[in-house]
Write a structure and sequence with these properties.
Elements lengths: L1 H24 L12 E10 L32 E9 L7 E3 L10 E2 L5 E5 L7 E5 L4 E4 L5 E9 L3 E4 L9 E4 L7 H6 L2 E2 L5 E2 L2 E2 L13 E4 L1 E2 L2 E9 L9 E10 L1 E3 L13 E7 L7 E8 L9 E9 L4 E11 L10 E7 L4
Parallel strand pairs: 1-14, 16-23
Antiparallel strand pairs: 1-6, 1-7, 2-3, 2-4, 2-8, 5-6, 8-11, 9-10, 10-18, 11-15, 12-13, 16-20, 17-19, 17-21, 21-22, 22-23
Length: 345
């Protein structure tokens, strides 16, 4: 009797081992299938904004746009990641867009605020970056010849739209979380500009994509431009004009995500932003905000607005023509516009 029990126990153990082996071999994880797929790590960073960087460091960059003379600002670290890998096959199969495991098409890939770390780069400008240190991996197939990465980070959810594999022309729109604070949301939006060329090719191209351990490191840059608005009421009409409010109208709440300097029409819907002025700025002043630059047919950036006169309780419409501070065709430049009021209303 004891012998039969011993045989039964051994048989049960064998059956359990067999079940475990079957479970392990039938894994749905494609990376376990004879090594035909691997997980490619992607390391992303954004420029750091630190007031100390500009002291004694010629040409030091911060998260402000190129050429911006403004003062130190606070920027929110992104919490949503939108990342896309265009996989081109060796066999001639259609190219596909791959995304990281766990990335939601609407809310993106959630970023852990504790996983950011600030490091100093080794370039001559003594620049710094914030690097996201948690592992971001995309499963890539064995049938691969080239891989190209496009990425964006945001402090609020955005909607990303593209056709087929044409990520370079992808557009975005701010989500409802940005309603009423569009400028702040745009200020904290970063992407990989399509025309950032390194060694003759787009810098999001994975150089060792066909190897057994491909990876890529990328720094993302501002999508929105800092709009520096300055106004001046002519001395001859200052007794009749005291500005109490400036309202920017028809601002775009979206646009081209990876071609931020090539927007030629405002997205729908648009929004307005209002600046309330006090006695110290009723005749002249300066106000900055973050906007999506939209180029008009004449090659300029124009911003319609409404000016309110507290003396007459009347308003008038005008347009500020913004001029880029730099001819840099890769990163979004700081732009400035001037309003001169020479008559009463």
């Amino acid at each position: 009797m004891f012998k039969n029990k011993a045989i039964a126990i051994v048989a049960m153990i064998v059956m359990m081992i067999g079940a475990l082996l079957v479970t392990a071999c039938s894994s749905s994880d494609p990376s376990s299938e004879d090594g035909r797929m691997v997980r490619m790590p992607i390391v992303l960073a954004i420029p750091a904004n630190d007031a100390s960087l500009t002291a004694g460091a010629t040409g030091a960059k911060t998260t402000r746009a190129e050429g911006d003379p403004g003062t130190y600002e606070k920027f929110q670290l992104p919490s949503h990641l939108y990342i896309y890998l265009i996989n081109t096959s060796i066999s001639g199969a259609p190219s596909k867009v791959l995304t990281p495991e766990g990335m939601n098409p609407i809310t993106g890939y959630s970023l852990d605020p504790k996983k950011w770390t600030k490091t100093t780069t080794l370039d001559n400008n003594k620049d710094s970056i914030y690097t996201y240190t948690d592992q971001i991996r995309i499963i890539i197939p064995e049938d691969r010849s080239t891989g190209v990465v496009y990425a964006a980070m945001s402090s609020v959810p955005i909607t990303v739209n593209y056709t087929g594999t044409d990520l370079a022309n992808a557009t975005f729109a701010l989500g409802t979380e940005a309603t009423g604070k569009e400028s702040e949301a745009l200020k904290n939006l970063y992407s990989s500009p399509y025309n950032n060329i390194v060694n003759g090719t787009y810098y999001g191209t994975v150089s060792d994509y066909k190897s057994n351990s491909p990876y890529i490191n990328m720094v993302l840059y501002h999508v929105a431009s800092k709009f520096d608005l300055q106004w001046n009421v002519d001395a001859s009409v200052q007794d009749k004009v005291k500005l109490s409010q400036i309202q920017l109208t028809k601002l775009s709440n979206g646009g081209k995500l990876f071609k931020p300097l090539e927007n030629t029409s405002a997205s729908t819907p648009t929004y307005t932003e209002t600046f309330t002025l006090d006695a110290g700025s009723q005749w002249y002043g300066r106000q900055a905000t973050y906007v999506i630059p939209v180029k008009t047919a004449d090659g300029n950036y124009k911003f319609p607005m409404t000016l309110t006169n507290s003396v007459s309780s009347q308003a008038t419409t005008t347009t500020a023509t913004a001029i880029p501070s730099t001819t840099n065709s890769v990163f979004v430049p700081w732009i400035y516009g001037t309003i001169k009021v020479k008559k009463s209303f």
